[in-house]
Amino acid sequence: MIKTMKALMYDQPGREHSSIRQIPYPKCGDDEIIIKVMSCSICKGAEHDHDNGKGTDLAKYPVVPGHEFSGYVHEVGKNVTLFKPGDRVTADNTEYCGDCYYCRREESNYCPTFGSLGHNINGGFAEFVKVKKEKVFHIPDNLSFNAAALSEPVACCIHAVDHANVRYGDTVAIFGAGSMAQILGQLFVASNASRVYMIAGKSNKLKLAEKYGIIPIEMDRSDYSIHETELLKENPLGIDLIVDATGSTKIISEAIKLLKKGGTLLQYAIVHSGEKVVMDPVLMFNNELTYTASFCQSHNFGRAVDALASGIVDGDSLVTGEFALEDFYKGLDENVEDRNSIKVIIHPNYENQ
């Protein structure tokens, strides 16, 4: 008799092509670990794209989504020595070939065969998930499974902070107040930055950011001069680093005008609309401005777990909803439709929480 487990499966993009069902339990290889998933976080962008029929850029279907997860080691292969059943863990969702030009330069993000659990490899919206042993990380007892599940977005944000290369005394302004903006804000507060601002529409998210030392500025989308005036009042020369966590082409085009000479705009959010960002090349040239981007992460999971365990990033504060796997769609709808929703956690083994 084939052993099965409960999982969310998308046969192809679109909710109508998905369901919570029984699928085969994964076979544990000699160098692999099976994790019993206790918490799997909804990545609003990725899960919404699976669900709305678009599909994610990396996706290959059929697939079990979910690339942000944590739980207990359930089974280990014969070559696994650092982990045993019952250990509390999280896991890096990424997989690389290890042999290409970029992998050999330790630039795995650019690997042409880049793989990711939850996109083109079965992920964590299941009772169990199979992971290569080198991708698994112990988590301390003081770190909740909910917070540990956020190691992946924290790792991505650490990559962005590294890429930003903030100097002592720099000012940082983050546009957006979603989960990634909140994590970026908390990380930048712990960086060399002298002041960190968050500019977004009215919501409880700005109040949360203020709790962690981030300066909130409310945005009126019909009149950008309001937040621009407030920001430049304290920073008449402009801002050293602006991070876009909205993906709005209009916000990006206007925000770059707020940069100090020599400043940088870091594109963090994906622009889904297909629109083009309009920039003034004369302004870019005369002020020696930099427009750059940060995509995904590689080899940052250890630092992400440390940032969460130490409290530099308060993962539990970002969790605004929790649901059993059977209620995945309800949780996703809440995350997409509720302006105050930040991170929603799904519990595939809810009865054992």
Question: What labels describe this entry?
Answer:
353 residues; alpha/beta; 7-stranded mixed beta sheet; 11 helices; 17 strands; 26% helix; globular
Topology:
Layout: E1 4-10, E2 18-24, E3 32-41, H1 44-52, E4 69-76, E5 88-91, E6 94-95, H2 101-104, E7 115-116, E8 128-132, E9 136-138, H3 145-148, H4 151-164, E10 171-175, H5 179-189, E11 195-200, H6 204-211, E12 215-218, H7 225-234, E13 239-244, H8 249-255, E14 259-267, H9 281-286, E15 290-293, H10 301-310, E16 319-324, H11 328-337, E17 343-347
Parallel strand pairs: 10-11, 10-13, 11-12, 13-14, 14-15, 16-17
Antiparallel strand pairs: 1-2, 3-4, 3-8, 3-17, 4-5, 5-9, 6-7
Helix pairs in contact: 4-5, 4-10
Structure description:
The structure is a single chain. The chain has eleven helices and 17 strands. Strand 14 (259-267), helix 9 and strand 15 form a beta-alpha-beta unit. The model has no long low-confidence stretch (mean pLDDT 95). It is 26% helix and 26% strand. The strands form four sheets. Strands 3, 4, 5, 8, 9, 16 and 17 form a seven-stranded mixed sheet that branches. By secondary structure, it is α/β, with parallel strands linked by helices.
